[in-house]
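Thread: quick sanity check before group meeting

JM: Hey all, I'm pulling together slides for Thursday and realized we never actually wrote out the predicted structure for the chain we discussed last week. Dropping the sequence here so it's in one place. If anyone has concerns about the input, flag it before I start.
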Amino acid sequence: MALAYTLFLPVVVAGFGLGIGTPHLFPDGLVVFAIHLAWGVVLGAIILAILGFRPMSIFGYTLGAAVTLIGVALVVGVGAFSATLGWFGSPLAVATYTPTPTPTLTPIPPTPTHTLTPIPPTLTPTITLTPTLSPTPTQTFTPTPVPVYARIAPEEGALIRAEPGFDAPILYPGIVQGTLVQLIGDSQEVNGFSWIQVLVVEDERQGWILQSLLLIATPEPNW
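JM (edit): ok, ran it. Output follows.
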């Protein structure tokens, strides 16, 4: 985990700097990666030699010595290259003095003055209006419909439902015989039975009831 953090993180930073063009991230990240890799090679060779893990042949000694020398060279050379990059970094921007232009007054020519010439008034002919008699509106009397009343005829009373039809829910059961109701809508025929919407006069309950259960109290045509 520590080795991966030491080696991969500088490479990621260098790639990020190369992608967004941020200075001092690329190639400095690659320099740090090379330094860490060289240190890892040198320290690994030293630790293996201390623990007694030595090469089995002369070729192993030669290869180990070459790797160690290369690691030392990378540590020294890349460190010097990093210092050189830090010395020859991006130049700092130097502010340059820009002279401010001096405003010059430009003479403005005088604006000509317009002189208004009076125009004599023109006589406008006067129109005399003759009053005319407006027709008096005739009042139209609209006859007020006469409320139609009925009473519950059966001795056992009647039921008031939410809609016309025997499948509709019952709103008010037990409307007693002789209760006065007002017809408030036209009758509707459902499954061969005529239903009509009524209003109970004493408590203003509304609903639908069979027309055959009512005894008309106010004459109504087509009843």
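AS: nice. The longest helix spans residues 58-87. The longest strand covers residues 193-200.
JM: adding both to the slides.
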